[in-house]
From TrEMBL:
Its main location: membrane. InterPro entries: MetI-like, MetI-like_sf. This is Carbohydrate ABC transporter permease. It holds the Pfam family BPD_transp_1. Belongs to the binding-protein-dependent transport system permease family. It is found in: Cell membrane. Keywords: Cell membrane, Membrane, Transmembrane, Transmembrane helix, Transport. It comes from Paenibacillus filicis. PROSITE patterns: ABC_TM1 (PS50928). Gene3D superfamilies: MetI-like (1.10.3720.10). The chain crosses the membrane at residues 12-32, 82-106, 113-134, 146-167, 188-210, 249-267. It is a multi-pass membrane protein.
């Protein structure tokens, strides 16, 4: 029976293999091309052959990666991206967990309406609010600054939602017993509630990190100088009116892709645990 079940599933395995091949083939070309000189990138692409994806050792070079950091100032770009992502994660988790704590454990007038506003806020496409948000940030004098990049995204509705759903699954008696023992709201939040929220904290933190790392439109609008440029905006610098520096573009794309993957893979178990434990309980 097990053999028959495996035989019946082979079409599914075949479909998965084909999909993996379709997804990984372009990535393999990008990765290999990042180690090739600019003039050799499209040399073996027509017709496609094994040389397209397996270059000769003598053709390999790390020149594109060296040029990124020596001529393009990519070290500053990586610092800006890491710095803004770290600030975004820390701020979003703090604000989101505090707001969710209030929504889950306290009763106040307009609570349901306010939570509905939070839900609607993170469902609205960013393009709808980009211009009003830009005008607000400009009036505050935050254009071309780290504050201008980070602050508008700190109140993340999805983070609030995840924390609230996780808090609702906690026993109410836990909060009430701490209150009876004389613990303050800050003490309950810091010493009792948050230590139990590691899965949802990790999943929400990874989600915010990846979102900020891949953010393009808002950093493009909020910054003007190279001093605050982040990685997704910097990728557009490799295309000029005279041509495209494909090898450097591919090298920068590999770096931009690998770092979130390295962050997610070791923590994927906690990410899934946090997402599944934040149920839709009401």
């Amino acid at each position: 029976m097990e053999d028959q079940g495996g035989f019946r599933r082979w079409p599914l395995y075949l479909i998965h293999a084909v999909l993996a091949f379709v997804v990984l083939l372009p990535l393999a070309f990008v990765g290999v091309s990042s180690f090739r000189p600019l003039e050799d990138i499209f040399k073996y692409i027509s017709p496609v052959s094994w040389r397209t994806f397996v270059p000769a050792p003598m053709d390999l070079t790390v020149g594109a990666y060296v040029d990124l950091f020596t001529e393009r100032g990519f070290g500053r770009v990586l610092f800006n991206t890491f710095y803004t992502s770290a600030l975004e994660v820390a701020g979003a988790l703090l604000i989101g967990s505090l707001a969710a704590y209030a929504f889950a454990f306290y009763e106040f007038k307009g609570k349901r309406l306010l939570f509905a506003v939070v839900l609607v806020a993170f469902m609205i496409p960013f393009e709808v609010t980009a211009i009003p948000l830009y005008e607000l940030v400009q009036r505050l004098g935050w254009i071309d600054s780290y504050a201008g990049i980070v602050v508008p995204g700190l109140a993340n509705g999805l983070v609030i939602f995840l924390y609230r759903q996780f808090f609702l699954d906690m026993p109410k008696s836990l909060h009430e017993a701490a209150r009876i023992d004389g613990a303050s709201s800050a003490g309950i939040y810091l010493r009792i509630i948050m230590p139990l929220c590691k899965p949802v904290t990790l999943s929400a933190g990874l989600m915010v990190f990846v979102h900020q790392w891949e953010s393009f439109m808002w950093p493009l609008l909020a910054t003007r100088s190279k001093a605050y440029k982040v990685i997704q905006v910097a990728l557009s610098d490799f295309t000029t009116e005279f041509g495209t520096y494909w090898n450097e573009l591919f090298a920068a794309s590999i770096i931009a892709m690998i770092i979130p993957v390295v962050a997610i893979l070791p923590l994927q178990r906690f990410f899934v645990m946090g997402m599944t434990s934040s149920g839709l309980k009401e």
